[in-house]
Design brief:
By secondary structure, this protein is an alpha+beta fold. Helix content is about 25%, strand content about 35%. It has two helices and five strands.
């Protein structure tokens, strides 16, 4: 019976590893545009054309951290916190995102480069 349990546990573990999705580090970067929204609940990104419910929890990494700080001094710290953005990011559904994020079933935007920002939330969503 003990060998059978070990086999079942090993099989289940192997299955979980094989079926797990890629981490955000493995998701390719791409240029995306949309609205960056900051509120008491966190930092969110809504791609152009997407519903607000399809938002992504935002985490800045690498050079994007300093780029965001510079942009904050320009206008990103104004209220309300909704701005147009164009950035290079990995978007994905992952539990590998920000540990302080909204939970393991959320979508994450791992922002690696700010390309452009604008005060109008839909500035980069035009035709």
């Amino acid at each position: 019976m003990t060998r059978l349990r070990c086999f079942i546990v090993l099989f289940a573990a192997a299955w979980l590893v094989a079926c797990a999705g890629p981490s955000l580090d493995e998701v390719p970067n791409r240029v995306v545009t949309g609205t960056y929204h900051v509120d008491a609940g966190g930092q969110w990104f809504v791609p152009c054309g997407a519903a607000v419910a399809d938002r992504y929890w935002v985490t800045f990494v690498g050079a994007a951290v300093q780029q965001r700080e510079r942009a904050e001094h320009a206008f990103l710290n104004r209220i309300p916190g909704r701005y147009g953005v164009r950035w290079r990011a990995a978007l994905g559904d992952s539990a590998e995102g920000d540990p302080e994020g909204p939970g393991p079933t959320s979508r994450y935007a791992l922002v690696r480069e700010l390309i452009d920002t604008a005060e109008a939330p839909d500035a980069f969503c035009g035709a």
